């Protein structure tokens, strides 16, 4: 079974691409969702993150269950690259274990591994091929502002913590230029046929 890494800068449209793969019956693993699960439920992650960021990193919900205080965590790490790297060093190995377990229970010709920082984290080492979803920075900023209800400065700060387009383009095997959402389904169908007949 092949693992195809899917990545792109924030607001590039990689989640939309992942949805279209899923519609064709291709199993899709969303690393960011897995990371949230690990952050909330893995005892080792909870211990390490609390040590890194303090007790405020976790709160109790209405049922007295511990939950990651994601707003607080984001406010800490998106302004401090060193803290972000330390947080990623805690979470990424645990997410990889989670992915291996998921993969062992999955039957398919290939799977999509969607990760925002696939190259930055070294996750591409575990992929057979990689797809980069590219979109102009202007479009990405507008999408994220609308999606997350944040201002331009907040989006720009997040962009600073990710690789540049040039760095990603140098490592990607395939590129989807997302300047027209209507073209994405056709690309995904073509790629799917290519993978099934490979």
How would you explain this protein's 3D organization?
Helices cover 54% and strands 15% of the residues. Strand 3 (58-60) and strand 4 form a beta hairpin. Helix 2 (31-41) crosses helix 3 (43-53) and helix 3 (43-53) packs antiparallel against helix 5 (81-104). Strands 2-5-1-6-7 form a 5-stranded parallel sheet, sandwiched between helices. The mean pLDDT is 90. The chain is built from 9 helices and 7 strands; from the N terminus they run E-H-E-H-H-E-E-H-H-E-E-H-H-H-E-H. The protein is globular and about 50 Å long. The chain has a domain at 2-27 and 106-193: 3-Layer(aba) Sandwich (Rossmann fold). The protein is an alpha/beta fold.
Number of H/I helices: 9
Task: Count every beta strand, where a strand is a DSSP E run of 2 or more residues.
Answer: 7
Rounded radius of gyration (Å): 17 Å
Walk across the major sheet and give the strand order.
Answer: 2-5-1-6-7
Structural class: alpha/beta
**Spans where pLDDT lies below 50 across 5 or more residues:** none
| pLDDT averaged residue by residue | 90
Share of residues in helices: 40-55%
Return the CATH architecture of the domain at 2-27 and 106-193.
3-Layer(aba) Sandwich
User: Per DSSP, what share of the residues sits in E-state strands of 2 or more residues?
Assistant: 15-25%
- The backbone outline, from C-alpha atoms, is globular
CATH top level assignment of the domain at 2-27 and 106-193: Alpha Beta
CATH evolutionary superfamily of the domain at 2-27 and 106-193: P-loop containing nucleotide triphosphate hydrolases
| CATH fold category name of the domain at 2-27 and 106-193 | Rossmann fold
- How would a textbook summarize the main sheet? 5 strands, parallel
Order of helices and strands: EHEHHEEHHEEHHHEH
Report how far the terminal alpha carbons are from each other. Answer: 12 Å
